[in-house]
Write a structure and sequence with these properties.
Length: 359
């Protein structure tokens, strides 16, 4: 009988271990709740709500609206279609193209994030941008015997030590809308040798998480589970991005035309800690400022230390990211807030961050 009891116990442990492996493939987010979130800047919340979203091909800012042009033909891309929804990919970056207007998609996309366990801290219809709060993927928690038995009674004492947030950007096209999802991550690490204090610091963005949420969003928009997996599995070659110098100015050189580069640079900025305050596609300009991705606001973190800001009271650093295409090549450079070429160490760091994300 004792041997049978031991065998039963071993079987139970093995089954729980198997559950843990299965659970690692799931997504189950829960809002961090008590963690402070970044507030919507006043200059964003006061923007006009009359003219919405960026339109490829037009002179578009938050205060300008003009009909666009279709995407340039002949640009290599991985495209999979299903009804009015398709997914495109370039390297590790994916996005959804839907033959519906941004107005038709805004509420369903907003509902999708709330149903996925997030709260929204940014809801800017005029810019076509929404952003979630920091949340924890509870599916990563170990499914051990104690937690499996007591469940929610001890659930609050468990933590993965990781937080995620997602930004969604909707851009109008002549035939519908492009939807981009970018991920930012934080991890809790010890900050001394005694390992009795921790701080939150950024961790790399996760393209697989972005793809999974895009796939789930496709299901929300009417695609079946099986079909969404097929569409998300489509691949495409990665275009190269290298850092170079033009004159005395650091730049990123991308081996693809403006249409594709414009989208990829926008997604790279979303991923790497910049807030896009405005964009003018006809001029090839993103108006950005850097926001430190730190949920507790106590430490500047890696990217916060990357840029020169001496005190917590300093104003955010603003830049213009210029995207200039010539045939099947595009150059990305950094301008200061006044529009003059930026040649400082900050510019060198920014182009490196963008190039690293585009590789």
């Amino acid at each position: 009988m004792k041997n049978l009891s031991r065998l039963a116990l071993l079987a139970l442990v093995a089954s729980l271990a198997a559950c843990s492996v299965l659970e690692s493939d799931k997504i189950d987010y829960k809002s961090a709740g008590k963690a402070p979130t970044l507030e919507v800047p006043p200059d964003l919340s006061q923007l006009s709500r009359d003219n919405r979203y960026a339109i490829p091909g037009g002179a578009v800012t938050a205060n300008a609206y003009q009909a666009g042009i279709a995407n340039a033909p002949g640009v290599p891309t991985a495209v999979s279609n299903l009804g009015d929804v398709r997914m495109e990919r370039s390297g590790t970056q994916r996005w959804i193209v839907v033959n519906r207007t941004p107005d038709q998609l805004w509420d369903p996309v907003k509902d999708f994030w709330q149903e996925s366990g997030f709260l929204l801290t940014t809801d800017q219809r005029n810019l076509g941008i929404m952003e979630t709060d920091w949340a924890e993927n509870r599916a990563k928690l170990p499914q051990d015997i104690i937690r499996g038995t007591l469940g929610k009674l001890v659930d609050s004492v468990y933590s993965t030590g990781e937080l995620d947030r997602f930004r969604t950007r909707l851009e109008r096209t002549p035939t519908g809308t492009e939807i981009f999802v970018s991920h930012r991550g934080m991890q809790e690490v010890y900050n001394n040798s005694r390992q009795d204090q921790t701080v939150w610091q950024p961790r790399p963005s996760d393209p697989e998480l972005e793809t999974e949420f895009l796939r789930r969003l496709m299901v929300k928009l009417g695609v079946s589970q099986e079909q969404s997996k097929i569409l998300a599995a489509t691949t495409a070659p990665t275009k190269t991005a290298t850092v170079a110098k033009v004159g005395n100015q650091p730049v990123v050189q991308i081996s693809e035309g403006f249409e594709r580069a414009w989208r990829r640079v926008g997604l790279a900025l979303d991923r790497t800690g910049f807030t896009v305050e405005d964009r003018d596609r006809s001029a090839g300009l993103y108006y950005v400022r850097y926001v430190t991705p730190n949920p507790d606001k106590k430490e500047p973190g890696f990217f916060g230390k990357l840029f020169s800001s001496s005190t917590k009271d300093d104003a955010p650093i603003k830049f213009r990211i210029s995207v200039k295409g010539q045939g099947e090549a595009t150059t990305v450079s950094v301008l200061n807030a006044a529009g003059a070429p930026e040649t400082s160490a900050n510019a060198e760091r920014i182009v490196k961050v963008i190039a690293d994300d585009l590789k």
